[in-house]
Design a protein that fits this description.
The protein is of the alpha/beta class. Helix content is about 45%, strand content about 30%. The model has no long low-confidence stretch (mean pLDDT about 95).
Length: about 140
């Protein structure tokens, strides 16, 4: 079982990235990478891999509410295959249904209670979604 992971919230315009460390019990929101039709700049991904030294990469799969695959599920899988091919690391998949909705709710609550000052942006939601997926991976 891997102890360190980089977790990716795949999107066609932005990809949220978080790290998870089972030994330390920590999750860190790292970055929201710009993507062009689902493809980020490899140098940015490689820098995160170099800096955080993950043993595994985790990609969220956005499934339909009934658990079936969607078009985005297939694109997320393809992104995971691209990551595996470029990095040489094992890629795990994680169900990320409702993660973006939960992320937006968390951020809006932070805004309401004053712990967050600036408005919620789409990149913030992607980053929080990656963090929430990293927490799920950590507990699995």
């Amino acid at each position: 079982m891997a102890d360190r992971a980089l977790v990716f919230d795949f999107g066609t315009r932005r990809i949220g990235v978080a790290s998870a460390n089972r030994l330390a019990g920590t999750v860190t929101a790292l970055a929201t990478l710009p993507a062009h039709d689902g493809v980020p700049e490899w140098q940015e991904v490689a820098a995160l891999i170099r800096d955080w030294q993950p043993e595994v990469l985790v990609v969220g799969l956005p499934r339909n509410t009934d658990g079936t695959d969607s078009a985005m599920t297939q694109r997320s899988r393809a992104f995971g295959q691209w990551l595996a091919g470029r990095s040489g690391l094992l890629v795990e998949e994680i169900d990320e249904r409702y993660t973006s909705t939960e992320a937006e709710a968390v951020l809006r609550e932070q805004r309401r209670d004053g712990s967050r000052r600036r408005r919620v942006q789409p990149a913030d939601i992607d980053l929080m979604a990656a963090r929430l997926m990293a927490e799920t991976w950590l507990r699995s």
